[in-house]
Design the sequence.
């Protein structure tokens, strides 16, 4: 039994390619079933977030190149377009990689907590749709247990550990000490939008609006952070009043175009708008960055900021790695035991076959 992982992430692959490879939660079950049906996997889990696409599986005859070509072509890319982007690990290397991912050690923001929930959701999607088996089931359960242990026994969550906290820091640099007088519009009523909204609310912004295609979802998210719910249709009416706009939906297309931003900025008479796009694929037109008084940041920009301020948590790295090494060893012993048991069972079956 051979666990493996292939993937790309924020370190190996630029944002424009990551957003093409991204798979929405609603598409994951179909993709996994296709991979199972075609024999690429015996069992598997697909983890697709803003910063990574990783396929975990079990198949003694897996072909990394075949899987890379399949996922590349699905995204409308040639395998050559991703040269140097893919990485792959098998056996203990794959186990260690997932344990580090779930613990936040491989994240853009070292030690960030959101990845643990994303790993759990990816596992639940695969399990619910019958894509997991004995190996991936135990692999993901143990990765989440290991992540919990790392958080309990170390200080990697000390200080800033989320994209939302860095987004607020950038806004404060742009607006100086006037953040409490600013108005914020969040495009998207999901988990990321709520998390970012809480950070801005804690810093005392004057008003927050949450926009969603679903009025009910917008209302629910707004209530969580003391905001007001609006519909996407009302975005252009609110935009000239906004000082900060956050893109955080799972919509696969641009929601805020350059023309709309330009029109809003003209009405603000020189007052800037800070745009930050946390979506994959991106929701805010990248060409907005060329407009006067428009400040546009995306995920990779925040990574550069975070890299300068995480030294304190990285000091805990050796402690984290020691905990994970022990957990990986436990898992590999379990894997060896069930592999030996499977061989014994196969031998018994062969012995029971009638002589020809």
Sequence:
């Amino acid at each position: 039994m051979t666990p493996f992982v292939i993937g790309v992430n924020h370190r190996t692959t630029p944002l424009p390619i990551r957003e093409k490879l991204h798979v929405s939660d609603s598409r994951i079950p179909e993709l996994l079933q296709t991979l199972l049906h075609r024999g690429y996997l015996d069992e598997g889990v697909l983890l697709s977030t803003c910063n990574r696409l990783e396929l975990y599986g079990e198949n003694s005859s897996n072909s990394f190149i075949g899987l890379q070509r399949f996922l590349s072509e699905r995204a409308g890319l040639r395998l050559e377009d991703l040269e140097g982007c893919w990485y792959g690990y098998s056996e203990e290397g794959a186990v260690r990689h997932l344990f580090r991912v779930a613990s936040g050690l491989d994240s853009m923001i070292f030690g960030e907590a959101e990845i643990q929930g994303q790993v759990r959701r990816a596992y639940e999607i695969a399990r619910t749709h019958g894509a997991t088996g004995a190996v991936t089931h135990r692999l993901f359960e143990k990765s989440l247990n290991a992540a919990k242990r790392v958080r309990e026994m170390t200080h990697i969550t000390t200080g800033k550990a989320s994209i939302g906290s860095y987004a607020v820091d950038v806004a404060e640099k742009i607006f100086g000490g006037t953040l409490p007088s600013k108005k914020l519009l969040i495009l998207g009523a999901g988990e990321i939008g709520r998390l970012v909204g809480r950070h801005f609310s804690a810093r005392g912004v004057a008003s927050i609006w949450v926009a969603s295609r679903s009025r009910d979802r917008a209302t629910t998210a707004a209530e969580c952070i003391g905001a007001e719910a609006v519909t996407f249709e009302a975005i252009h009416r609110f935009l000239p009043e906004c000082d900060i706009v956050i893109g955080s939906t799972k919509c696969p297309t641009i929601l805020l175009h350059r023309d709309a931003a330009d029109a809003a900025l003209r009405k603000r008479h020189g007052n800037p708008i800070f745009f930050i796009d946390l979506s994959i694929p991106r929701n805010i037109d990248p060409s907005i960055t060329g407009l006067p008084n428009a400040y546009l940041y995306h995920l990779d920009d925040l990574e550069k900021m975070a890299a300068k301020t995480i030294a304190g948590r990285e000091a805990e790295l050796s402690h984290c790695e020691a905990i994970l090494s022990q957990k990986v060893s436990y898992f590999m012993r379990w894997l060896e035991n069930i592999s030996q048991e499977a061989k014994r069972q196969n031998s018994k079956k062969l012995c029971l076959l009638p002589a020809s």
